[in-house]
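User: I'm preparing a small set of examples for a lab meeting where we compare how different chains pack in three dimensions. I only have the primary sequence for this one, and I'd like the structure in C-alpha cell form so I can line it up with the others. Please keep the answer compact; I'll paste it straight into my notes.
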Amino acid sequence: MRFVAHSLWVCMMLGVVTGIAPPVRAQSRNPAPVQSDTSTPKEHLRRARSARAKGRWTEAHAAYKAAFEATDSTSGTERESAEIAGELGLCELALRKYRDAAEHLAWSLERRKALSLAQQKLYGDGLARASQFVATLYLSVDPPDAEVLVDGKQIGPPRRTYTLFFEPGKHMVRARAPGREEAFQSLDARAATEPTMTIQLPRAAVSSAGEGAPAGPTKKAATEAHAARSSAPVPAPSASWPGTLRIGGVALTTATAGAGALFLLRAHVLHRSLREANSVRREQGWTPHACREASAPAACAGIQDQVKERDLFATLGKVSLATSAVFGVATAASFFTEVAVFGEAPKAAGVRLVPIATSERAGVLLEGAW
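Assistant: Understood. Below is the C-alpha cell output for the 370-residue chain.
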C-alpha cells in the first residue's frame, strides 16, 4: 500500500512538471542553419534578380558579386560566368562605380563567344558609358612574366598586355621580375582617354666578384684607361688664354674695320655733296676765293661746317682701318708665337694626344670630339 501511494505521488509530480513546461516549437526541433558563404550561385542570382526588379541596386550588387565569386570558385560554365560578370557590371554602372563596372563588363566581353548577340550589345553599350568616366590604359610589359602592381596592388596573373581602367587622378604603375631591375611609370589618368604605356625591365647588373678575386680583362683595361686619364698632365690655366685672346682680336679687328668703312663712306658722301654744290656755285659766278674775302657770303659758314665734317669722318675712317690692321696682325701673329710664349704647340680644336705607358703596354691615347 505504501508503495502504491508513493507511485501515485511520483505520477502527480510528473504531470505538474509536464503541464508547466512550454511546448516545443518546430523551430526548436529544427534550428535554422547559421548563415554561411556556402550558398550556390543560383541562390545568389535569384536574390540578385529579385532585388534588381525592386530597384534595390545595392542589394542586387552584393548578390551579383557573391554569385560571381561563387561561380569563380566552382566549376561554373563560361557562359554563366560571363553573364554574371556582365550583370554585375551593369549594377555597378547604375551605382556609379564606373571603374568596377568597366572592369567587369570588359571581362565579360572577353568571353563574348559565350554570350548572345543581345547580351553582347547590352554589355558593350554599358562598357562604352562607363569608359566616359575612367581612363583606359593599354599596357605592354617586357618580359611577359613580370609582376605588375598598380598603386601598390597586384593586378592578376602576369601577361604581356593589359587593359586597365583608372579613376581620374595620379597613379603609379610598377613592374618587377626575377633577374630584372624594377621599373616605375606614373600615370595622370583623365576621363574618356585611352593612353598607352610600355614598360621594359632591363636585366639586373651582374654582381661583381669577391674582393679577393682577380680583376678580369675588361675591368683591368678600364682601370688602366682611367689611370692614364688621371695621370695625364692637367693644362695650366694660361693654356686657354690664346684662344680667348684670338677671339677678342678677331672681334676687334672686325669691329674697327666695319667702323672705318662706315666713316669713310660718310666722308665720301659729304665730299661728293660739296663737289656738286661747288659746281652749282661756279655757274652762279662764285670764285674759289669767295669765302676767303672779308665780305664772304653767309653761305660760306655752312660750307665750312660741311668741310670740317668731311675731314673728321675721313680721319676717323683712316684711324679705324689702321687700328683694325694692327689687331689683325697681332691676332695672326699669335698663331706663330704660341710655342715661344706658352711653351706648347697649338692644339687642334677639340683633339688631344696623350701618351700612355704601363708595365704591359705603351701607346698614344687620342681624345677629342668631332
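A couple of notes for your slides: The first strand starts at residue 135 and ends at 142. The beta strands are 135-142, 147-150, 153-154, 161-166, 169-176, 183-189, 196-200, 351-357, 362-368.

User: Perfect, thanks.
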